[in-house]
Fold this protein.
Amino acid sequence: MTNEIATVFYVDDNARSRNWLSSVLTQCGFKMVTAHPAEALHRCMKISFDLALLDYQMPSLTGPQLAQEIKFLTPDIPIVLISGHAVLPAQDLAFVDAHFGPGTSLDDLVDTMRRLTNSKSPIKISPRFAAAWSHST
Protein backbone atom coordinates (compact mmCIF):
# COMPACT_ATOMS: atom_id res chain seq x y z
CA MET A 1 0.00 0.00 0.00
CA THR A 2 1.50 3.33 -1.04
CA ASN A 3 0.02 6.83 -0.86
CA GLU A 4 -3.48 5.49 -0.31
CA ILE A 5 -5.70 5.85 2.70
CA ALA A 6 -4.81 3.06 5.11
CA THR A 7 -7.65 1.10 6.67
CA VAL A 8 -7.12 0.48 10.38
CA PHE A 9 -8.96 -2.24 12.29
CA TYR A 10 -9.18 -0.90 15.85
CA VAL A 11 -10.31 -3.14 18.72
CA ASP A 12 -10.92 -1.80 22.23
CA ASP A 13 -13.43 -2.84 24.88
CA ASN A 14 -13.83 0.77 26.05
CA ALA A 15 -16.36 2.38 23.69
CA ARG A 16 -15.40 5.89 24.73
CA SER A 17 -11.71 5.30 23.98
CA ARG A 18 -12.58 3.49 20.76
CA ASN A 19 -14.78 6.34 19.54
CA TRP A 20 -12.35 9.09 20.55
CA LEU A 21 -9.22 7.57 19.04
CA SER A 22 -11.11 6.54 15.90
CA SER A 23 -12.23 10.12 15.43
CA VAL A 24 -8.70 11.44 15.90
CA LEU A 25 -7.16 8.88 13.54
CA THR A 26 -9.84 9.56 10.92
CA GLN A 27 -8.88 13.23 11.06
CA CYS A 28 -5.24 12.15 10.63
CA GLY A 29 -6.11 10.48 7.33
CA PHE A 30 -6.87 6.87 8.26
CA LYS A 31 -10.03 4.94 7.43
CA MET A 32 -11.17 3.37 10.70
CA VAL A 33 -13.08 0.14 11.21
CA THR A 34 -13.78 -0.53 14.88
CA ALA A 35 -14.89 -3.51 16.90
CA HIS A 36 -15.55 -4.61 20.44
CA PRO A 37 -13.39 -7.64 21.41
CA ALA A 38 -16.46 -9.90 21.48
CA GLU A 39 -16.94 -9.40 17.73
CA ALA A 40 -13.32 -8.80 16.71
CA LEU A 41 -12.36 -12.25 15.40
CA HIS A 42 -15.54 -12.65 13.39
CA ARG A 43 -15.26 -9.12 12.03
CA CYS A 44 -11.59 -9.29 11.04
CA MET A 45 -12.28 -12.35 8.89
CA LYS A 46 -14.88 -10.41 6.90
CA ILE A 47 -13.07 -7.14 6.24
CA SER A 48 -9.90 -6.01 4.53
CA PHE A 49 -7.53 -3.79 6.52
CA ASP A 50 -3.95 -2.55 6.38
CA LEU A 51 -3.12 -2.40 10.09
CA ALA A 52 -4.61 -3.70 13.35
CA LEU A 53 -4.61 -1.38 16.36
CA LEU A 54 -5.38 -3.35 19.51
CA ASP A 55 -5.94 -2.52 23.14
CA TYR A 56 -3.76 -4.67 25.38
CA GLN A 57 -6.08 -5.48 28.26
CA MET A 58 -9.56 -6.59 27.23
CA PRO A 59 -11.95 -9.10 28.74
CA SER A 60 -12.20 -12.57 27.21
CA LEU A 61 -9.78 -11.91 24.33
CA THR A 62 -6.64 -9.90 25.11
CA GLY A 63 -4.75 -7.80 22.59
CA PRO A 64 -1.86 -10.30 22.40
CA GLN A 65 -4.28 -13.20 21.85
CA LEU A 66 -6.07 -11.30 19.09
CA ALA A 67 -2.71 -10.31 17.57
CA GLN A 68 -1.78 -13.97 17.32
CA GLU A 69 -5.08 -14.82 15.62
CA ILE A 70 -4.75 -11.95 13.14
CA LYS A 71 -1.15 -12.93 12.27
CA PHE A 72 -2.32 -16.51 11.71
CA LEU A 73 -5.02 -15.29 9.29
CA THR A 74 -3.03 -12.49 7.63
CA PRO A 75 0.69 -12.69 8.48
CA ASP A 76 1.66 -9.51 6.63
CA ILE A 77 -0.72 -7.20 8.49
CA PRO A 78 1.17 -4.96 10.94
CA ILE A 79 -0.16 -4.90 14.49
CA VAL A 80 0.14 -2.04 16.96
CA LEU A 81 -0.63 -2.68 20.62
CA ILE A 82 -1.71 0.12 22.98
CA SER A 83 -1.41 -0.43 26.73
CA GLY A 84 -1.28 1.33 30.04
CA HIS A 85 1.97 -0.51 30.77
CA ALA A 86 5.39 0.77 29.75
CA VAL A 87 6.88 -2.73 29.67
CA LEU A 88 5.10 -5.92 28.64
CA PRO A 89 6.21 -9.56 28.82
CA ALA A 90 8.06 -10.69 25.68
CA GLN A 91 5.44 -13.36 24.94
CA ASP A 92 2.77 -10.62 24.74
CA LEU A 93 4.79 -8.86 22.03
CA ALA A 94 5.56 -11.94 19.92
CA PHE A 95 2.99 -11.09 17.21
CA VAL A 96 3.13 -7.29 17.56
CA ASP A 97 5.03 -4.86 15.32
CA ALA A 98 4.88 -1.88 17.71
CA HIS A 99 3.82 -1.22 21.31
CA PHE A 100 2.79 2.12 22.79
CA GLY A 101 2.46 2.58 26.52
CA PRO A 102 2.30 5.54 28.89
CA GLY A 103 4.40 8.53 27.96
CA THR A 104 4.32 7.95 24.21
CA SER A 105 2.98 10.74 22.07
CA LEU A 106 0.07 10.65 19.68
CA ASP A 107 2.52 11.91 17.03
CA ASP A 108 4.65 8.79 17.61
CA LEU A 109 1.63 6.52 17.27
CA VAL A 110 0.44 8.18 14.06
CA ASP A 111 3.95 8.31 12.56
CA THR A 112 4.45 4.60 13.30
CA MET A 113 1.06 3.73 11.81
CA ARG A 114 1.92 5.72 8.68
CA ARG A 115 5.32 4.03 8.43
CA LEU A 116 3.86 0.53 8.86
CA THR A 117 1.22 1.16 6.18
CA ASN A 118 3.39 3.31 3.87
CA SER A 119 0.76 6.02 4.19
CA LYS A 120 1.92 9.51 3.25
CA SER A 121 -0.98 11.51 4.67
CA PRO A 122 0.33 15.02 5.50
CA ILE A 123 -2.38 15.77 8.06
CA LYS A 124 -1.04 17.21 11.31
CA ILE A 125 -2.33 16.33 14.77
CA SER A 126 -4.22 19.00 16.65
CA PRO A 127 -2.52 20.06 19.92
CA ARG A 128 -5.87 19.47 21.65
CA PHE A 129 -5.88 15.82 20.56
CA ALA A 130 -2.24 15.39 21.52
CA ALA A 131 -2.95 16.72 25.02
CA ALA A 132 -5.98 14.44 25.44
CA TRP A 133 -3.90 11.43 24.31
CA SER A 134 -1.17 12.17 26.84
CA HIS A 135 -3.76 12.05 29.62
CA SER A 136 -5.31 8.79 28.39
CA THR A 137 -2.19 6.59 28.25
